[in-house]
């Protein structure tokens, strides 16, 4: 079954594949450019973006510290409003419950709006196992579903595809005959998906935020598919990661405002839809039966650790949109449902180091992610923490590196050894030197010189210059 | 004012001139510069690679070396940024935590020291040439020094400053990242090199030797006629 | 309704927090800062209307101003502009006040199909909305900063009216305009605290539906309306 981990290709191969995909890189770079300027314009417009971040951080910190209380309140309120609540500790439990709802309803067609947590738990595959047909209704997700390709970005899932590819997919899978103009492609999707909405037995949504004080589950969207999913089928299931809870509507305001700005540079997205339980007496659209599935799937083990603030994440992808590593390799290189800096932090926490130990190193630690995060997750610091765990607890770092670092410790703690080695660096590298540069270095230097030259160590170290100068008096 | 120079291992080994220029600039603005001989490396290469136990050995040596200094000034946003992290690293170490805080509090990157501590924005330098400035990630984001380098560069006589497109993007150095993730790092530095070329600059300037080794190494590999210069070279030119 | 597997789940969560379970007595702290209150602070209603109008350009939404007397004419012009023959509208209590009963009757007399949402009609409401050319509702709270109309969906104002037809018209009484979402959520929060159960669906609608999923090109109109008009009415 699919889960957080995507496929079995090695990290090195995924990176190589990403770097060689020129179209993807161009598309991702251009998307990043737009997302980045959109976010920046919004931050500039308010002029006090840092204050908003501080507030976002405070809200998330308080909520996580009291998450047992808020989840209890949330579930009580959803239940009061006619909804069933299922607490799922694992992906399997969540899928099993959802399968049972679908089987009980004898549902054949499930229409779904965009949701990362359902990708994470592999819900679509679980529903297909019980004979249900799951239709993704977000345009990007639908394209990927038809093409059997996983998302590569958490906000713009099909960012790696071009319109010609979309046209071919539509033609092959759905008999599309029109041009590759985005408007025509979208118009076709509208017609096709409208029929899917109208004929669906069950609707499934994710959840951006759930308001504890009332039980309202809120979706932040632009296309309107989450509204369709929550207005048409009689039975609805919302699936939420347990950290999506907010205390009251007042905090919902702040987090939605941070999300839409940080994600897409909009004051608000076209639709923010907040549904509370089942529809009321006399209402003729909205669900008659409602289920909220609250998923742990490894999240609780992050609580109470130095990684707790990773659960602040509101899935805006601002960190992904500024990440230079993501720009060059694309989302699939991460081999996880969650790509980019937040993916490199979260994936090993949710799915272990064994399959994902390269991810914390897929960062130059430039800190661009940390700088933009609207809820102040110290992403690059958490990547260093991961590396520390991989080295010191998991003992998964290469032996040669361990030896080198032992050497480093000796070198850095012993001034005499340090002085001697800096003084000898030039003569030691002399065999590889040509015209004061090294173009094909030995050992670890090879990784460097494959792409760039390495300078020759200086003829005289600074400290010997300083010493000579002092001997000659300070008058020069 | 007595200032201790923190040379950084990269400058110690690869660029004696950066140290010389830093000393001369500091003396010109009235500081007395000493050089604690026992200093080594800030520990960042090991620390950022996850070897915090090994890194701490080097860090302790640094704290010993600078224990009697009033101010510690270094020509690197990244290495000084690492010193600033010491209190976090030694948070639970009763023996070293005080000293870590003291070293962190008295340490400054050279442009930060000139502008924020001494209030100097003109160091009396003249430099003829077209220059573009690459703000290193650790200078701006870890250390939080965003304006000081440009304030100083703008007051250099004769300099033709051109803005580097998407200057805030990482050059791909990242210490061991450049070796460990050499493919990705290589793509990042190619992009940076292309942005430098767009400016038509003769010099690309930065406050961090790591970035300069990386960008410069890429540009000589591409056969480009652009020189790299540490910011102190521009600020100490007549 | 049922809550399943809660105790085991929350006990497990609590164990990771290394403290006893909290089942009551948790208060929200006073947040150290409230930047949301500073947005468009102190603006008059007229100034907020100007902000709203300006923002409509950003969200690809037509903006018209009128008063109660002029509403029927503007509505007619907009509906005709949309070449709409089948109209679905909420059976809002404000219809009477704003003279819309007469207006809708006249539309019918002129040969249009007009359907007012009717709680006794069940699924027929949605079926009509699905083939309607235009949907019309009032805004309950209007957010100037983002150009958003807030709809409390209920048995008089179905979710589908503002969603399924190709075009949508929101009538915005001037008195409903507030600076931003902060004022709307405060109102909802207070109503909830007072025990007035919140609507089963609250829709914050900001212009037409859109997508940028194909090569980041903005496509206006995906699943929801492709064209939206706001009519601001002096009240």
Automatic annotation (TrEMBL), chain A:
Residue ranges constituting the 4Fe-4S ferredoxin-type domain according to the UniProt record: 310-377
Q: Which residues form the LUD domain?
A: 72-295
Among Gene3D superfamilies, the record links this protein to: Alpha-helical ferredoxin (1.10.1060.10), NagB/RpiA/CoA transferase-like (3.40.50.10420)
Residue ranges for the region (Disordered) are: 434-456
- What InterPro entries would the database entry show? 4Fe4S_Fe-S-bd (IPR017896), 4Fe4S_Fe_S_CS (IPR017900), FTHF_cligase-like_sf (IPR024185), Helical_ferredxn (IPR009051), LUD_dom (IPR003741), LutB (IPR022825), LutB/LldF (IPR004452), LutB_C (IPR024569)
Keyword Metal-binding recorded:
yes
Superkingdom field = Bacteria
* Keywords (A to Z) from UniProt: 4Fe-4S, Electron transport, Iron, Iron-sulfur, Metal-binding, Repeat, Transport
* Binding annotation for [4Fe-4S] cluster 2: 323, 366, 369
**Which GO molecular function, any one, fits this protein according to its record?**
metal ion binding
Listed under GO biological process in this entry are: lactate metabolic process
Its biological purpose is as follows: Is involved in L-lactate degradation and allows cells to grow with lactate as the sole carbon source. Has probably a role as an electron transporter during oxidation of L-lactate.
NCBIfam families attached here?
LutB/LldF family L-lactate oxidation iron-sulfur protein (TIGR00273)
Protein's name in the database: Lactate utilization protein B
Lineage summary: Bacteria, Bacillati, Bacillota, Bacilli, Bacillales
The gene name reads: lutB
Automatic annotation (TrEMBL), chain B:
- Which residues are in the Cysteine-rich domain? 3-84, 131-215
Q: Name one GO biological process term.
A: lactate metabolic process
Entry GO terms, CC = cytosol
One GO molecular-function entry? oxidoreductase activity
What family classification does the UniProt entry report for this protein?
A: Belongs to the LutA/YkgE family.
Q: What does this protein do?
A: Is involved in L-lactate degradation and allows cells to grow with lactate as the sole carbon source.
Entry-linked PANTHER family: LACTATE UTILIZATION PROTEIN A, UNCHARACTERIZED PROTEIN YKGE
The record's HAMAP family line, in alphabetical order, gives: LutA
Q: What is this protein called?
A: Lactate utilization protein A
TrEMBL record, chain C:
One Pfam assignment: LUD_dom
**Family annotation (Gene3D superfamilies):** NagB/RpiA/CoA transferase-like (3.40.50.10420)
Q: Give the matching InterPro entries.
A: FTHF_cligase-like_sf, LUD_dom, LutC, NagB/RpiA_transferase-like
The biological processes this protein is annotated with in GO are: lactate metabolic process
Q: Where is the LUD domain?
A: 51-233
Report which superkingdom the organism of origin falls in. Bacteria
Quote the SUPFAM superfamilies the UniProt record gives: NagB/RpiA/CoA transferase-like
Explain the purpose of this protein. Is involved in L-lactate degradation and allows cells to grow with lactate as the sole carbon source.
| Family under the similarity heading | Belongs to the LutC/YkgG family.
Q: What is this protein called?
A: Lactate utilization protein C
Q: Which organism is it from?
A: Lentibacillus halodurans
The UniProt gene name for this protein comes to lutC
């Amino acid at each position: 079954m699919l889960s957080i981990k995507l496929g079995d290709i090695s990290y090195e191969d995924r990176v190589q594949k990403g770097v060689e995909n020129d179209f993807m890189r161009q598309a991702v770079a251009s998307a990043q450019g737009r997302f980045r300027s959109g976010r920046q314009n919004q931050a500039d417009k308010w002029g006090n973006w840092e204050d908003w971040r501080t507030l976002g951080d405070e809200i998330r910190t308080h909520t996580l510290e009291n998450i047992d209380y808020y989840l209890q309140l949330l579930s009580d309120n959803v239940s009061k409003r006619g909804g069933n609540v299922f607490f799922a500790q694992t992906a399997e439990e969540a899928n099993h419950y959802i399968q049972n709802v679908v089987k009980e309803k004898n549902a054949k067609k499930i229409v779904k709006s965009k949701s990362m947590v359902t990708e994470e738990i592999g819900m679509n595959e679980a529903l297909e196992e019980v004979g249900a047909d799951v239709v993704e209704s977000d345009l990007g997700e639908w394209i990927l579903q038809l093409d059997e390709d996983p998302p590569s970005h958490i906000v713009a899932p099909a960012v790696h595809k071009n319109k010609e590819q979309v046209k071919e997919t539509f033609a092959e899978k759905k008999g599309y005959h029109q041009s590759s103009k985005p408007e025509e492609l979208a118009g076709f999707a509208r017609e096709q998906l409208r029929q899917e909405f109208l004929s669906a037995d069950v609707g499934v949504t994710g959840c951006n935020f759930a308001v504890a004080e009332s039980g309202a589950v809120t979706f932040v969207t632009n296309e309107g598919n989450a509204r369709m999913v929550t207005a048409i089928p009689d039975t609805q299931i919302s699936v939420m990661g347990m950290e999506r809870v907010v205390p009251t509507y007042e905090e919902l305001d702040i987090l939605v405002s941070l999300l839409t700005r940080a994600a897409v540079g909009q004051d608000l997205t076209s639709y923010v839809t907040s549904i509370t339980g089942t529809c009321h007496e006399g209402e003729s659209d909205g669900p008659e039966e409602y289920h909220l599935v609250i998923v742990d799937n490894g999240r609780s083990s992050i609580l109470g650790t130095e990684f707790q603030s990773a659960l602040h994440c509101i899935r805006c992808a601002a960190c992904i949109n500024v990440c230079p590593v993501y720009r060059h390799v694309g989302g699939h290189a991460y081999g996880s449902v969650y790509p980019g800096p937040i993916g490199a932090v979260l994936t090993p926490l949710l799915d272990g180091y064994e399959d994902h130990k390269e991810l914390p190193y897929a960062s130059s630690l430039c800190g661009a992610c940390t700088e933009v995060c609207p809820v102040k997750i110290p992403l690059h610091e958490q990547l260093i923490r991961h590396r520390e765990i991989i080295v010191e607890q998991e003992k998964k770092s290469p032996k040669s590196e361990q030896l080198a670092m032992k050497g480093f410790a000796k070198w850095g703690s012993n001034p005499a050894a340090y002085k001697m080695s800096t003084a000898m660096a030039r003569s030691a590298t002399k065999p590889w030197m040509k015209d004061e540069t090294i173009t094909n270095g030995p050992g670890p230097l090879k990784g460097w010189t494959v792409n760039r030259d390495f300078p020759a160590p200086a003829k005289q170290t600074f400290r010997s210059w300083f010493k000579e100068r002092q001997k000659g008096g300070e008058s020069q | 004012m007595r200032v201790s120079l923190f040379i950084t291992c990269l400058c110690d080994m690869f660029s004696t001139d950066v140290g010389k220029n830093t000393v001369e600039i500091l003396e010109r603005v009235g500081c007395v510069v000493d050089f604690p001989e026992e200093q080594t490396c800030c520990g960042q290469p090991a620390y950022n690679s996850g070897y915090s136990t090994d890194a701490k050995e080097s860090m302790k040596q640094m704290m010993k070396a600078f224990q009697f200094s009033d101010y510690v000034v270094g020509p690197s946003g990244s290495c000084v940024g690492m010193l600033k992290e010491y209190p976090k690293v030694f948070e639970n170490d009763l023996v070293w935590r005080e000293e870590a805080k003291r070293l962190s509090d008295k340490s400054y990157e050279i442009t930060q020291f000139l502008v924020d501590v001494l209030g100097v924005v003109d160091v009396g330098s003249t430099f003829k040439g077209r220059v573009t400035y690459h703000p290193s990630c650790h200078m701006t984001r870890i250390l939080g020094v965003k304006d000081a380098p440009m304030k100083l560069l703008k007051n250099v006589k004769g300099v033709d400053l051109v803005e580097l497109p998407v200057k805030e993007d990482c050059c791909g150095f990242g210490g061991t990242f450049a070796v460990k993730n050499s493919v990705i790092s290589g793509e990042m530095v190619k992009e940076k090199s292309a942005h430098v070329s767009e400016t038509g600059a003769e010099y690309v300037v930065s406050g961090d030797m790591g970035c300069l080794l990386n960008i410069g190494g890429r540009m000589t590999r591409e056969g480009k006629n652009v020189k790299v210069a540490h910011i102190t070279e521009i600020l100490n030119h007549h | 309704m049922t809550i399943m597997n809660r105790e085991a789940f929350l006990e497990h969560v609590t164990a990771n927090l290394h403290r006893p379970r909290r089942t009551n007595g948790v208060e929200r702290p006073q947040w150290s800062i409230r930047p949301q209150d500073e947005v468009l602070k102190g603006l008059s209603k007229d100034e907020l209307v100007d902000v709203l109008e300006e923002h409509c350009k950003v969200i690809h939404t037509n903006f018209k101003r009128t008063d109660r007397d002029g509403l029927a004419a503007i509505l007619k012009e907009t509906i005709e502009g949309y070449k709409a023959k089948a109209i679905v509208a909420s059976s809002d209590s404000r219809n009477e006040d704003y003279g819309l009963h007469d207006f809708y009757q006249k539309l019918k007399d002129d040969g249009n199909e007009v359907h007012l949402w009717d709680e006794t009609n069940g699924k027929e409401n949605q079926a009509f909305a699905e083939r309607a050319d235009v949907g019309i509702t009032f805004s309950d709270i209007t957010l100037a900063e983002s150009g958003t109309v807030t709809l409390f969906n209920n048995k008089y104002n179905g979710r589908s009216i503002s969603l399924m037809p190709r075009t949508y018209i929101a009538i915005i009484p001037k008195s409903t305009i507030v600076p931003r979402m902060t004022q709307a959520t405060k109102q909802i929060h207070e109503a909830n605290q007072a025990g007035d159960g919140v609507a089963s669906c609250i829709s914050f609608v900001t212009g037409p539906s859109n997508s940028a999923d194909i090569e980041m090109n903005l496509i206006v109109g995906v699943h929801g309306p492709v064209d939206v008009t706001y009519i601001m009415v002096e009240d």
